[in-house]
Design goal:
Radius of gyration: 51 Å
Structural class: alpha+beta
Low-confidence stretches: none
Strand content: 15-25%
Distance between the termini: 152 Å
Oligomer: single chain
Organism: Pelagicoccus mobilis
Keywords: Coiled coil
Protein name: DUF3450 family protein
Pfam families: DUF3450 (PF11932)
Coiled coil: 37-95
Length: 238
């Protein structure tokens, strides 16, 4: 056998050292890769969870948005119906206000005074822009309520009236808005009246009615028992 050359031994030792170093590097890199792999797997799992959560949030948001759109559409539809109804109510209120103004020219003072506050609340063209239709409707209803009440009863009023060219204090019984009879304090002057579209109320003097009208007032006051009385009538409704 021949002894190994010293250089060959050194070369072998160097090669072996390099191989060991390479194995160590490979082992370290493998271990590092395993660690990185675990980190990546955990990161992937976390991201998948996050993605699933975001997808759920997006789905919920889309459903909510869809429901919101449907609700908005329903509300828009309701608003359109409400606007249409408001327009109809406004038109009706304006018609009633116009009619009330026209009729008020024929109302007797005793009734007109009772609703004067409401009449003043009927808005002019400029005021209509700022007066809510609900307020105007309530005002119209208040006037019509009083109108119906007056129309269905006999109302007694004492006031100054032109009789025979003179101003006299007379007692008047109004039968709604259709007809009225009056008599003065002396019982000498009497007559009747009815509404006129262009003159308010027209009054006619008829002294022959004095006794009958006096009894009529007494019946109203319950001073005497009710009984039949013959009086002229010309029914004119405003």
């Amino acid at each position: 056998m021949y002894p190994l050359h010293a250089d060959a031994v050194k070369d072998t030792q160097h090669t072996l050292s390099e191989w060991i170093a390479l194995e160590k590097q490979i082992s370290e890199e493998k271990f590092e890769w395993i660690e990185q792999k675990e980190v990546l797997e955990n990161s992937i799992e976390f991201m998948e969870t996050e993605i699933a959560s975001l997808e759920e949030i997006i789905k919920t948001a889309e459903e909510t948005a869809s429901a919101g759109e449907r609700k908005r559409a329903e509300l828009d539809d309701e608003k359109e119906k409400l606007d249409a109804a408001t327009d109809d109510i406004t038109a009706a209120v304006e018609s009633y206000e116009s009619t009330i103004k026209e009729l008020s020219l024929t109302w007797p003072n005793v009734f007109r005074e009772s609703v004067e506050t409401f009449l003043k609340r009927i808005p002019d063209e400029e005021q209509k822009k700022t007066t809510p239709v609900t307020t105007r409707l309530q005002n119209v209803v208040a006037i019509m309520t009083q109108f119906d009440k007056f129309q269905g009863i006999v109302t007694k009023d004492t006031g100054i009236q032109e009789v025979g060219g003179e101003s006299r204090e007379v007692t008047t019984l109004y039968f709604g808005f259709a007809y009225a009879y009056y008599i003065d304090g002396t019982g000498e002057y009497a007559g009747y009246g009815y509404p006129s579209s262009d003159k308010g109320w027209e009054w006619k003097t008829d002294a022959s009615l004095s006794e009958s009208v006096s009894q009529l007032v007494a019946v109203y006051d319950r001073s005497i028992d009710a009984h039949f009385l013959g009086l002229p009538a010309k029914i004119v409704t405003p």
